[in-house]
Amino acid sequence: MSVPQRRPVASLWIGTRLHYLNQLCLLSHLRQGHPTILYCTDTVENVPQGVEVRPATDIMKIDMGIVAQTSESFLSNVFRYKMIQAIDAVWIDCDAFCHRPFPDEMQNIYAGHGFRGALNCGVVYIPPKGALIEQLLNYYDNLPDAPAWFNKHQRKRLDKQDSSLPQAVRIYNAERTAFGPQAFTWFAQQTGDYEKALTPDVLYPVPFQLNDVFYDPYGRVEGHFTEATLSVHLYTNGTRPWWRKNPPMAGSYAARMCAEIGLDPATALEE
Q1: Cα 151 from Cα 222, distance rounded (Å)
Q2: Are 46 and 268 in contact (CB under 8 A)?
């Protein structure tokens, strides 16, 4: 039976090689019928078959100097909203596993995260026209002297930054999440979109603090899921080095999902 074609999803990759968990997550969206686009800053040698590769410069000019002084996540935080505005796709991090397809009619795909309640940006769709995306893009395109939500301690850290650095680097050094969850949460509160957030079980059923459970052959990952769960974030930025450099243990969630999709994790481990 053929899988129905659904709304497109898209992500960004900086580098030349995907880890098996990234391959797994991209393939999971294809399995659910979502056309899957991977924007790349470099030539990536092991993109799974079926994933459409496009240059990141199709969406925005890429300043790798700024990325080098901040992080890959800094660029993705800016990129995701420009991508949504340009092609009207759902943003997915490359470590978000598609458990169920995103409904075509769902117009606000974002959720609170972990134990703190801030909105996360790992899986995001917001209307490409509207106050929220306009305010987010205005923030990124016209960086303020300090983000409006900074408290006195954050402002003090910002004031200590070298004034010769680009403003994006100064803000990032003062607060790493100032371009991600903090910005998204703040502007969603300003526009009234915060109340439209999904509950954490929809997109982040397993809290970040428990991410080792994905590699535990005796861990009951599905115990965190509900009937509403659409995506499962695997949090590769918090994965211990051992799990990145070795295949997952048989019976673990990571191993079971690889087996379901037909992916050999041994072929794409961290070197």
Answers
A1: 38
A2: yes
Please check whether residue 114 is in contact with residue 100, taking contact to mean a CB–CB distance below 8 angstroms.
no
d(CA 74, CA 177): 8
- Strand pairing of 90-92 and 123-124? antiparallel
Contact by Cβ (8 Å): 89, 10: yes
pTM above 0.90, yes or no: yes
Are the C-beta atoms of 263 and 18 separated by less than 8 Å? no
Element (H, E) at 232: strand 231-233
* Residue 209 near residue 115 (C-beta atoms within 8 A): yes
pLDDT digits (tens, 9 = 90+) for 195-225: 999 999 999 999 988 999 999 999 999 999 9
pLDDT at 168 over 90: yes
The number of CA neighbours under 13 Å toward the Cβ of 62 is 20
Long-range contacts of 259-262 (CB under 8 A, 24+ apart): 261/24, 261/27, 261/28, 261/31
Q: What is the pLDDT of residues 234-259, one digit of tens each?
A: 999 889 999 999 999 999 999 999 99
Three-state SS for 137-150 is HHHHHCCCCCCCCC
Question: What contacts 200, CB < 8 A, 6 or more positions away?
Answer: 111, 112, 113, 114, 207
CATH classification code of 9-267: 3.90.550
d(CA 266, CA 270): 10
